[in-house]
Design a protein that fits this description.
Helix content: 25-40%
Shape: globular
Structural class: alpha+beta
Largest sheet: 15 strands, antiparallel
Strand content: 35-45%
Radius of gyration: 29 Å
Number of domains: 2
Distance between the termini: 23 Å
Length: 336
């Protein structure tokens, strides 16, 4: 059977249109790394391995700590203003910056390993981060430790008179710099501090001042410079990350942040050559979307499907029009 030339042309045109429609309707490629501020859902969880080495004793302590989004809602700031916040919870209270902040602020006579042991039990720290600009409004630190002769039982809420991005300022851009440059920060304290008195076998209440100046706050808000992007492999996987470092001494503090994981994937910290600290992401889970996020996703999917359906109809219409035109021309030619 001989196939006529017009029919071959028609089939070729239809094949081309089908290929074009498939290309237009194909899934869009994943976006390149962005520096936009992440949004969280209560239940988002990240697990890290913390390795701290005392160089002088050549002893490394490894601990697992968990970061989670435990709450979302209104938090009253230093000035009594209600702020819409996420609550980021570390358990034990080993968040990368607070650990060293507390170590230098409160436990200078202890080794860093002893400090970690103190935080190991039922301790936790909570950070109140504004949803609008990712700024730290305040924090709550709970510590309980008792070995039979020494102990501390404390829950202290700290509200900062100035708010700063924590731990990262968004949006991220290469060569952008952020951090806290002062050595003191005024804050309002609320809570209790009980220290076990071995002599009397009682817990002594240590009165808290209404306000306090916190020193060494550059450990809590380190100065960072965004140096670029880099692929980083940790136990949780390989991630394309933004890299940040301390400008004057990049080897002292380096941080890698992944938009995919919505958190820091790796952190290296050294101080005065005596402590080497590494945190690596072991695993993470993003919780089920909130009702607002679900509605947005459904609307987005409906919008995309509507656009694709309209495109499909348009492409199909063009194909039908071309087919009818070709067949009409073929029939007209046959009649001549």
């Amino acid at each position: 059977m001989r196939v006529s030339k017009p029919l071959i042309v028609l089939l070729a045109v239809l094949t081309l249109l089908l290929t074009l429609s498939q290309a237009l309707l194909a899934s869009h490629p994943a976006l390149a790394i962005t520096g936009e501020q992440p949004s969280y859902t209560v239940g988002d969880t990240w697990k890290y391995n913390l390795a701290v080495k005392n160089v002088s004793g050549n002893v490394t302590t490894n601990k697992l700590f968990v970061l989670s989004v435990s709450e979302a809602g209104s938090v009253t700031d230093f000035n009594g203003t209600s702020r819409d916040c996420y609550t980021l919870k570390y358990q034990p209270a080993l968040d990368p910056f607070t650990l060293f902040f507390l170590y230098f602020q409160l436990f200078k006579d202890m080794s860093i390993n002893e400090c970690i042991e103190l935080f190991e039990n039922d301790s936790y720290s909570k950070f109140y981060i504004t949803k609008s600009d990712h700024e730290l409004v305040g924090m709550q630190i709970h510590i309980y430790y008792f070995d039979g002769s020494h102990g501390i039982n404390s829950t202290i809420t700290i509200k900062l008179n100035e708010t700063y991005p924590y731990p990262i300022k968004f949006p991220l851009e290469i060569n952008s710099t952020f951090g806290y440059y002062k050595e003191e920060l005024n804050c309002r304290l609320q809570g209790y501090l009980l220290i076990y008195n071995e002599t009397t076998s009682n817990w002594d209440n240590i009165p808290l001042p209404e306000t306090e100046n916190l020193t060494n706050v550059f450990l809590l808000f380190p100065l960072l410079n965004v140096t670029g992007t880099e692929n980083v492999t940790v136990p949780a996987g390989t991630f394309e990350c933004w890299k940040m470092a301390y400008p004057d001494a990049p080897d002292a503090l380096s941080i890698w942040y992944s938009p995919e994981a919505k958190s820091i994937t790796k952190l290296n910290f050294s101080l005065e050559g005596e402590i080497i600290y590494t945190a690596e992401l072991q695993s993470y889970t993003h919780a089920i979307l909130s009702p607002e996020q679900q509605m947005f996703l459904l609307f987005y999917m409906f919008q995309q499907s509507s656009q694709q359906f309209t495109l499909l109809i348009a492409v199909g219409g063009v194909a039908v029009a071309l087919a009818v035109t070709t067949l009409g021309a073929f029939a007209w030619k046959r009649r001549k």
